[in-house]
Amino acid sequence: MSPVTHFLASWMLANTAPLERRERAIVALSGLAPDIDGLGLAVDLATRGTAWETNWWGEYHHTLGHNLLFALVAGTIALAFARSHRLKSFALAVTAVHLHLLCDVGGGRGPEGYQWPIPYLWPFAAHPQWVWSGQWALDAWPNLLITGICILVTLRLAWSRGFSPVELVCLRWDRKVVETLRQRFPGRADP
User: Fold this and answer.
1) Which helix (H) or strand (E) element contains residue 129?
2) pLDDT of 95-143, one tens digit each?
């Protein structure tokens, strides 16, 4: 799935518990973090056609960050950086990584038809691998629908709770987003 969809789904997950801004950020970023193993694509593109050509994308994407060990590392980082809701942050960060993995199993097939398996116990064991024969392509309608739903739910949460994912970048911008939503869709927001 798209990194945007992973981020929004994880931010929505972070809103299932009464977390502070910092903790919501940790959980949301934990759900996005598994795709850090996709940064090898930049190296592959930079080295394409050279004597140092690499295949880091093919070798490491859906491996380094897509496993149980990475989920536990993300949870441990959340535990270390959370302030008041440390155990909830740990649990939600681990859950956010697993949500990412499940979304990729469902909708992560590449344009060439390759189904990215998830080596769940890597680096300790190559198997079992999570894979689903019904996996749809990245640009298939289910992914677009899920992204659309995530956007709508995120906007609804921002309207009702008074903060949006923009809070992770700038509180002033976040207030403007919420204010605009509330002016456009007047009603009674949650306290």
Assistant:
1) strand 129-130
2) 999 999 999 999 888 777 778 889 999 999 988 899 988 889 888 999 9
Q: Which of 107, 108, 106, 105 is nearest to 118 (CA)?
A: 105
* pLDDT of 191 over the 80 cut: no
Residues 6+ apart with CB under 8 A from 33: 65, 70, 74, 97
Cis omega before residue 18 (within 30°)?
no
Left (φ > 0), alpha (ψ -120 to 50) or beta: where does 130 sit?
beta
DSSP assignment string, 81-104:
H-SS-HHHHHHHHHHHHHHHHHHH
Q: Are 58 and 48 within 8 A, CB to CB?
A: no
Q: State pTM to two decimals.
A: 0.89
DSSP class of 170: -
3-state SS assignment for residue 180 = helix
Beta-bridge partners for 80: none
Closest by CA position to 23, among listed 73, 93, 115, 97: 93
